Protein: Plasma serine protease inhibitor
Organism: Pteropus vampyrus
Amino acid sequence: MQCCLLLCLVLLSPQVASLRHHHPRAAKKRVRELPVATTAAPSNREFTFDLLRALLAANPNQNIIFSPLSISVTLGMIALGTGSNTKAQILEGLGFALQGGPEEEVHRVFHQLLQELSQPREYLQLSLGNALFVKSTVHIHDAFTSAVRTLYLADTFPTDFGDPQAARKQINDYVAKQTEGKIVDLVKSLDGTEVMVMVNYIFFKAKWETSFDSKSTQKHAFHVTSETVVQVPMMRCEDQFLYLQDPSLACKVVGVPYQGNATAFFILPGEGKMRKVEAGLNQETLRKWLKMFTKRKLLLYLPKFSIESSYQLEKVLPKLGIRDIFTSHADLTGLTNHSNIQVSEMMHKAVVEVDESGTKAAAATGVAFAFRSALMASQRIMFNRPFLMFIVENTENILFLGKVTRP
């Protein structure tokens, strides 16, 4: 799985700044026990699932894939350079403002997460990193660049945005190198007004603990809608998997473990229950699921698929209350003394590929759970209609989250 997030800061002329003011941009072979969470992202609010619902609303009937961790880390970095209401919107959007406590706690937790996720792993590849490309003639506060290096482990590079083609090549070459060539041509164009480009990337590649036998993969019908049916390559595996049935959300959840302490979870809503599941997903439900899975022998049918998504987050995040950073109201006094700088673009791109060998890519309510007792015979579960998925690695933090509408 590969994800990348790009954020551009532009230097506006007073005339353009005024225009933006009046027209703001719309902007191993066994089923292991689930790991105990170590460091959790600093959020009580449903940022991850609110963002999912916003993306679903903006992209109806489409495949969705994104990395909430990648986006959260980037917002944390941005918060370091903001002040007043701009900072408050970001922290509240992440859920931190509702918890209270000093802002430093947000950055400390993100720092610890980045350190943990950057540790080498024997069985899977997971790379998560940040970089700043800064125009040398525009002064960025030393305190800001020092903080992003120390807290967010970010690389920083002087960049000549006066030569847009050279700047674009510098950024794209860096990202391609960091993701082993999996993410190329991230920056499509620059116009010379940029003063800083902030990049966050995340790359994940892992093999299933129990591979699907490619000889068992056959074409099966996938019901995109009640009227639209397509033929897809359907993988098949009979083994012990993590399993639960949530009657309150009318869905079944299957956990398929990777080698190296990561797990992919696939959520299959009952017929006609997708919207109910989408609306009911929240952090507390996820926590309960992770604690209450049982091992179950399943005959699992899962489609091979490859999906890719790109999002202009300056059009999505305002729906979650993060608005000012994308307008002339942006307070970036923690980043620079220039008053006419704002975020012009925040782009997130993700790709996920699932096949027989594994996954490759470069994103409290009172609920009563009831579990059916495990039977000796295998239960057959076929993901032959739209489903949701998420990937976690060693913690309850979601690396990637998505919806497969059409494989």
